[in-house]
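[step 3/7] fold_predict: job queued, chain A
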Amino acid sequence: MEYLAIQMSVLLGGAIVVGGLVGWWVARFIYHQAATACRIELAGLRRNYEDSARENVNVRNTIRQLEGVLRKIGTPPSDTEYGQFLQVRKTLEKTRLQYQSLLDKCHQQQQVLGNLTAELQGNKQELAALQAALSQQQGVITTSSSVPLREDTFSAANRDDLTRIQGINQRVASKLQALGIVTYRQVAEFTSDDLYSIQRVLGAELSSVPEGWVQSAHSLFQQQSPPLQA
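[step 4/7] structure written:
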């Protein structure tokens, strides 16, 4: 019995010792966890304090600047400053008027440029029409055998009085002679295309295609020479 009691006592003491050691280790672990959490929280609080301190300094500086501005606003301007203000305002008004004047001139120049552009376009179209008329004019001065008759081919004696043709006055006759058309035969051999080309070349001188020229010139030519052979 005594031996059993001693064993029980030993086991109970060992259990107490082991329990104490485990409790000490658990308590130490919990202490380290709590201490670490406290250090982290303390570091966060320290950072918050530093940020708040810097923000406080910035707020104080801003307050000082605003106080300086308020004092400056509350101080009435001197005569010199007021004179400078009036001078600056006068300069700004003058600059604004100059800008408005330049803007109006720019608009006017844009309108003039638009008109000139339209006029240039019209001149280009007119030039193209004149070039086409000149090309057709070169095809008018031909005979029925497709041999061109130039003005220098005829002497003064061989030229006919074109004003005798019905519908041709002196001005039209001069222009026809400038084109190399100087005889009744040339006019009598005009085709419809030739008459249309002549009407386009002479422009304002002829209001319509001169269809009566051919018959009148043919009659005058037959009076000069035997009729044309078929």
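[step 5/7] annotate
The CA atoms of residues 78 and 179 lie 89 Å apart.
Confidence is low (pLDDT under 50) at residues 140-153.
exit 0
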